[in-house]
Design a protein that fits this description.
The structure holds 2 protein chains of 2 kinds. Chain A is an all-alpha fold. Chain A has one domain (35-157, 177-216). Chain A has 6 helices and no strands. Chain A has helices at residues 2-20, 36-63, 66-98, 106-127, 131-159, 178-216. Chain B contains 1 helix and no strands. Classes of the chains: A mainly alpha, B mainly alpha. The interface between A and B is medium-sized, with 18 and 18 residues.
Chain lengths: 217, 37
């Protein structure tokens, strides 16, 4: 309970700091660079969630425990949600900097492909009736789906010319303003804690559903 | 308040408060269901 209250307060601090503590980055129109504090952590959580889904799927295929399947499904759902949020915030940034919400930039195109791949994961789950078959097929698909993530998130946008900013937004860049770096790292922490909270809620909900289903059988 | 930053920040804070309240309510409802089962 304490970490949830701390998260609510911490996220509030991050929101205020992202607008009034850090300075807008040079080379971006107006205040648009401040989207860094929301867009990048959302993309980070999407990648983390898809990775967790892949690990839990591998565990499920080895041990066949319901908990592993619950973690895999919950992570994939949250990964999809944060991927959509990253796409929406990215589009807002694109409109302000490049003049259009959608430009079919390599990064925009690769995130759409990623969303379609994980959309198919949910379609697969809902298409299969037999629970055991569904879990095995979904686990195998989740592992295959994650194989595309490093390629679509890290490789494609780097091997082609992209409008997407790279070095300015990279925390490893020594030129990054220390205040911006502090708020950015704080935001990553807040989003990761939020993901843990949401993930635990979803897993608990799936456990309840499973218990109810067993009662009816 | 430069470039309407205060307004955007307020909108962000309101959205965050809404999400936080929703998550707390959901948390309590799930805890109640867990007790019932």
């Amino acid at each position: 309970m304490i970490y949830k209250i701390l998260l609510v307060l911490w996220m509030g601090v991050i929101i205020v700091a992202s607008f009034f503590y850090s300075e807008a980055a040079v080379g971006f129109p107006g205040q648009t660079s401040r989207i860094l504090f929301f867009h990048v952590p959302q993309a980070w959580i999407a990648t983390l969630a898809f990775l967790l889904s892949m690990i839990a799927s591998a565990v499920y295929l080895k041990k066949r425990t319901a908990t592993a399947d619950h973690v895999a499904l919950s992570s994939a759902e949250l990964g999809f949600l944060f991927c959509v949020l990253a796409t929406v915030t990215g589009s807002i940034f694109a409109k302000a900097t490049w003049g259009s919400f959608w430009n079919w930039d390599p990064r925009e195109t690769s995130i759409v492909i990623l969303l379609m791949i994980y959309g198919a994961y949910f379609a697969l789950r809902s298409a299969l009736g037999d629970p055991d078959k569904k879990r095995v097929f979904a686990a195998a698909y989740s592992i295959l789906a994650f194989a595309t993530v490093p390629f679509l998130v890290f490789v494609v946008p780097r091997i082609t010319t992209s409008l997407h900013p790279e070095d300015t937004m990279n925390p490893a860049n020594p030129g990054m303003d220390p205040r911006t770096l502090r708020v950015f790292l704080g935001s990553l922490l807040a989003y990761t804690t939020l993901f843990v909270w949401m993930l635990r809620l979803k897993i608990r909900l799936l456990k309840i559903e499973e218990k109810k289903d067993r009662r009816f059988i | 308040m430069k470039d309407g930053l205060g307004f955007v920040m307020a909108v962000n804070l309101i959205i965050w408060c809404g999400i936080a309240v929703y998550l707390f309510v959901l948390d309590r409802k799930i805890a109640k269901l867990e007790k019932e089962l």
